[in-house]
Amino acid sequence: MATRGFPNQIPEFNGSSWSSWVGRLQFYFEANNITDPTLKRANLLTLCGEQTYDTVCALIQPSTPAAVSYDDIVAALQKHYDPRPSEVYSRARFQRRDQLEGETVSAYIAALKKLAAHCNFGTLTTTATGQEREAASSANTTMLPLDVMLRDRFVCGLSDESLQQRMFAEKDLTFNKAYDIAVRAESAGHQQREIRRNTEPVHQTSNQPTFRLVVASSTTKQSCLQKVVAITTIQGTVSIPKSSSRYHLQR
Length: 251
Known about the structure:
There is one protein chain. Helix content is about 50%, strand content about 10%. By secondary structure, it is mainly alpha-helical. It folds into 3 domains: about 20-80, no CATH class; about 85-200, no CATH class; about 210-250, no CATH class. The strands form 2 sheets. The chain has a 3-stranded antiparallel beta sheet, with no helix packed on it. The protein is elongated and about 70 Å long.
């Protein structure tokens, strides 16, 4: 089966994220029913681009691409472009990650999950009953489950202190429950601000004080000859000449 003519060929690797590109390549194989390892290798070396092909040739010397399996080529490129970071370093980055200013709850969760990818936290295994769950990890059986670590970091890193206090008061708080509470609180906050924006101009207009500018007549001092001018002020201020003593305000 030849590569030419296959629909939706993926763009060549640009050097940004090998894991992401090779993941898309796997779906490309699946979409085109490519299962033979030799054909996978041929497509990989064809689609990866000239620079990546030259990198392959350099990494596998003195062998040639035709003599190295698809899996070995992928592993060599993975080590070259996306070397696995230190577990301690990954956990340090994870534990230091707080919610950024203006960052949504969903974006914060996505960032935490991405940082947790190389932390080697435990995973949750469902028992036969589907009810009891226990932590399990092939590398570290004492490590807390991933969703427990996500819950703790998520709650501790929230920028909204009132929401954080609400989380602290929750009994049997799970990661999913914490996420749901935060999303609903965020949505309610947006709705509240929207209502305030829509009603604020009305309140400002109705609350503006109204003054009467009383101007004493220059021809007589009798109150019946006073000229009265009604003025609605902006932000409660009125500009009156300091040099004149004939102006005064009345509410």
